Amino acid sequence: MESLHSQLGGLQYDAAPESAAIANIQKEYGLFINGRFTSPADHKTFSTINPATEETLSMIALADTKDVDAAVQSAKRAYEKVWSKTTGAQRAKYLYRIARLIQERSREFAVTETLDNGKPIRETRDIDVPLAAAHFFYYAGWADKLSHAGFGQDPQPLGVAGQIIPWNFPLLMAAWKLAPALAAGNTCVLKPAETTPLTALLLAEVLQQAELPEGVVNIITGDGTTGVALVEHPDVNKIAFTGSTGVGRMIQQRIAGSGKHLTLELGGKGANIVFEDAPIDEVVEGIIDGIFFNQGHVCCAGSRLLVQESIAEDVLRRLMRRVEQLRVGDPMDKNTDVGAINSAEQLARITELTAAGEGEGATRLTSTCVLPSKGYWFAPTVFTNVSQSHRIAREEIFGPVLSMLTFRTPEEAVQKANNTNYGLACGVWSEKGSRTLWVAERLRAGVIWANTYNKFDPTSPFGGVRESGFGREGGRQGLEAYLNV
Amino acid sequence: MLRLVTPESSGIQIPVRKNLPVFLTESGLRTELKKLSGVDAVGAEARVAKLSTRSLKKETKKSAINLAISMVDLTTLEGADTAGRVSSLCSKALRPDANDLTAPSVAAVCVYPDMVATARGVIGTSSVQVASVATAFPSGRASLAVKLLDTKEAVDAGADEIDMVIDRGAFLSGNLFKVYEEIVAVKEACGSAHLKVILETGELVTYDNVRRASWLAMLGGADFIKTSTGKVGVNATLPVALVMLEAVRDFAEEYGEVVGVKVAGGIRTTKDALKYLVVVNETVGATWLTPDYFRFGASSLLNDLLLQRSKQQTGNYARPDRFSGD
Q1: pLDDT at A2
Q2: Which of chain A's residues have a Cβ under 8 Å away from the Cβ of B42?
Q3: Which fold has domain A20-266+467-480?
Q4: What pLDDT was estimated at residue A99?
Q5: CA distance B92 to B75
Q6: 3-class SS string, B89-156
Q7: Which of A67, A192, A457, B248 could form a disulfide with A200 if both were Cys (CB 3.0 to 4.6 A apart)?
């Protein structure tokens, strides 16, 4: 058939890069213990790189057992001498200050995060940083109202919280952890991920600016050994971990019998369920947001697309047209949709799993976008002809890779969505409210989105069931993780 | 690496015209319109909010401004319009920037039917089109006979394009077939003149209605679908434009007929105009990025585009008085 073709993106956008100089990254960073940065010269160091260029951004101190002990002792001292005697209203004052300072320095945070993580500046600017500030604002409001939170007359904090956060939302995860812990009256030792320490260190500067009492928050950088030392430290009363299911399991084993409190936010294999009466154009955007937001480095990513068979062809055609349109490249460019993969290690895992997908007989559709020659990149990819037994339908890929499956009836959709070890998040798309509710109450997942995906708000609790972990972050429920209830 | 998606298959495939179906009954038309998917308002608004953050720089910005100028339907639709006012608007349309002849002329002038002859006299045979509103603009509250006569007079006076309004009362009361019949009849009365069908989306209110009315207009034979008259409280908005662009895209894929979109009312700044162009670019693409298929119905927008155009060229903002009022 003769046909006319309209090329999407006919208007070529010239480069619109944000300035890297805004970040003001130091050559080297020490550990943030007792309100001060230690000298980097006193530690072994490791480098943190820009995954989009593979250039070294800074040298970071590696905290050993002694350093971890110093940080925990500092937190313990601050808890006993200062923070446990600080009123809720006073704690709120500091949290409000931190929130406002994050807003004031938002551009610096956004640029630093994009350089260190590889995610697009559009996302750090419009999502990560504003949400981080919003979490501090939200929990500032709770600090003097704990007796009204539904956890008894006078709920008490736990003491010292050891908090280990991942590399996919470095600043935002720090905010998710610190804000409720401080509001509830705990002191903290926070360990950012090895590949993305910079925004946590910038946050340390903000804590100094906010004049948060010394030792209330300590930030220790390092690798897995640092995390183990923190988990095993006898003076830590609570561990909060976000990361992989494997590491979460290991933490749970290590602290078994120690009496430490634990919350885990682990992996996921979210199902995005699309019924034939769904709003098709918004469905396509929802699928895109579900899996290509943050390069798919999202624990609640909608990585399994379940489409009713009657519209599967139409959805796939529209989806691939949109995938082809995604602007992949320089994360610092304001028009970039999909940035760099965070590390060589993660890229290898994505590559391995997609190869397995092809090997098992699924059909691979990959964007023809041109990838930069340096850095870690993976083109947005969709698999069709995926069956429930394929690895790409079962294992968390944690990358821009979507597996598309089909279903015939609501019962089958629920059965397929629940056929996983995980249970973090699901999406349901339908114009029929009664069906959405019917499906939602049968899905085993901590978060269920209706006609949207990957929407976050500090007032809404987030967390998983089964191998996706336990405990909630955000909302009134998020306080429970840091109160002795 | 396997790359099954080729650029050729990733854009919008427009088959060469299939015949449009003809509807003889209300039920046939309803069946066709029932096939349309709903619009999720939150999602549609989120999509345009995201597109609004696109940053156009350097050459992209220059060419987008020139493109936007060439897409303007320079409009005067006032009770106080006179031959003098319309003539001066037409001169402006032909030569928007008196100090810089490299500025493109606009797409069309848009006037009331009784001013078409005056406009034609000034525009002559140049590439600028003469558009006229018709069919008892803006309310559309007249009999079909009056609407057809209104249309015919404008065409006879030399209008290249007719901007008709749909009967919103009929649409909102569910009498879709009446709306359809009127569009078919006006299209017939237009002869070779292009027909733009104004949906008056501010009165249709919901995005579902906008999508349905867009298809109704296209099935009736519209060459363009247009958001608004500019005479009600809510005029063109980005999410409404998105929904209409999705409609023309899907219609082109279904019937091989490329229908244009005109956004009108309330677009006053270059910044706004560029946001619309981004939405066009990323929803329907290159085929629509021409005055043949996308228009801005506006008056004050033109001078802001010229101001920003000269800023891009000289690096400095000129005084507003450097550009003629109309």
Answers
A1: 57
A2: 282, 451-452
A3: Aldehyde Dehydrogenase; Chain A, domain 1 (3.40.605)
A4: 98
A5: 11
A6: HHHHHHCCCCCCCCCCCCCEEEECHHHHHHHHHHHCCCCCEEEEECCCCCCCCCCHHHHHHHHHHHHH
A7: A192
CA dist., res. A189 & res. A61, Å (int): 15
Distance (Å) from the alpha carbon of B199 to chain A's nearest alpha carbon: 21
Tell me: the pLDDT tens digits for A396-450?
999 999 999 999 999 999 999 999 999 999 999 999 999 999 999 999 999 999 9
Positive or negative, the CA dihedral A114, A115, A117, A118 is positive
Residues of A whose CB is below 8 A from B290: none
Mutate to test the interface with A, among B4, B245, B246 (most CBs of A within 10 A): B4
Report the 10 Å Cβ neighbour count for A256: 10
The answer regarding whether domain A271-458 maps to CATH 3.40.309.10 reads yes
Residues of A in contact with B9 (CB under 8 A): 320
- A13–B55 C-beta distance less than 8 A: yes
Phi, psi at residue B204, to the nearest 5°? -80, -25
- Active-site option among A113, A265, A467, A480: A265
Is A282 one of the annotated active-site residues of the chain? no
* Contact assignment for B11 to A8 by CB distance below 8 Å: yes
Is B326 domain-assigned? no
Question: Which of B11, B37, B277 lies closest to A7 in CB terms?
Answer: B11
pLDDT of the residue at A196: 98
How far off is chain A from B56, nearest CA to CA, in Å?
6
Domain segments of chain A: what residues?
A: 20-266+467-480, 271-458
Contact B5 A367 (CB under 8 A): yes
Check: CB of residue B108 under 8 Å from CB of residue B92: no
φ/ψ of B256, rounded to 5, equals 70, 20
CATH of the domain at B208: 3.20.20.70
In tens, the pLDDT along B155-193 reads: 999 999 999 999 999 999 999 999 999 999 999 999 999
| pLDDT single digits (tens) A216-242 | 999 999 999 999 999 999 999 999 999
Residue given tokens 């400095």 in the structure block: B316
**pLDDT at residue A188 is higher than 80:** yes
- Nearest Cα neighbor of A242 from A470, A4, A7, A476 is A470
State residue A317's pLDDT score.
Answer: 96
At residue A425, what is the residue type? A
Q: What is the distance between the alpha carbons of residues A419 and A429, in angstroms, rounded to a whole number?
A: 19
Residue pLDDT, tens place only, B5-41: 444 556 888 888 888 999 999 999 999 999 999 999 9
Averaged pLDDT, A192-202: 98
Q: Which residues of chain B have pLDDT under 70?
A: 1-10
What ipTM does this complex have?
0.95
| CA-based radius of gyration for chain B | 20
